[in-house]
Predict the 3D structure of the following.
Amino acid sequence: MKIEGILWDNDGVLVDTERLFYQSNRELFLSFGVDLSELDFFNWYLADNCGAWHLLAHLGMGEERIAELREGRNRRYSELLLGAAVEPIAGVGELLSALARRVPMGVVTSSMSSHFDLIHSRLDLLRHFRFVLTAEHYTNSKPSPEPYLMGLKRLGLAADRCVVVEDSPRGLQAATGAGIRCIVLRNELTRHYDFPGAWHICDDVAGLHALLHAEVCVELHAQVRAELHDELHNDLHAQVRAEAGAGPAVLAGMER
């Protein structure tokens, strides 16, 4: 099926920020004697969207206190983003540049807009996208399909004409729930997972580049060939009609 639009996740797909978010959470829970492992982070933040707040509830903390701690975590993540030299995932800038000339694209992320803006304030990736949707745009974040359904609406395309690029199980669930094919770009935190239901799985941007180039360019070349065929067909018919209209004059010219 032709690819006419691409929706991209942000963290772990466009930019290398998942470990900073993991660090901000790990620091918080360590202060309460809880060592949040990478597997815990995967299970509670990447596979699901519940977070590890239930661990604090088990320590007797109420919802108001947990909300305060969540805000503190968000501030710490902002500090880490400001202090780090956040870079695009290697090769993604070149890939976006190649694709933006061929298909419309948008970003659909669960990140808060404040974090998203901090990340991209020193980068040059957003010029490739028609729009950005952050956590504030939807009532239900991933794994709900709502974010990607909104992305389809912004693209003005049907689900079967688009693909999603994700890095997490909950992102995959959101994409497939919206009826969109999903390509998973695995990273260090997700490489152990086999992502059932994914359309394709890539372990690096080189593989993703090859896949999208093949899918988008094959369709583009087929379209160009069809247009050339129609153009030649129309030219031939026009030539035949012109010669038929000329009649004996054409034949006389040929005899001379």
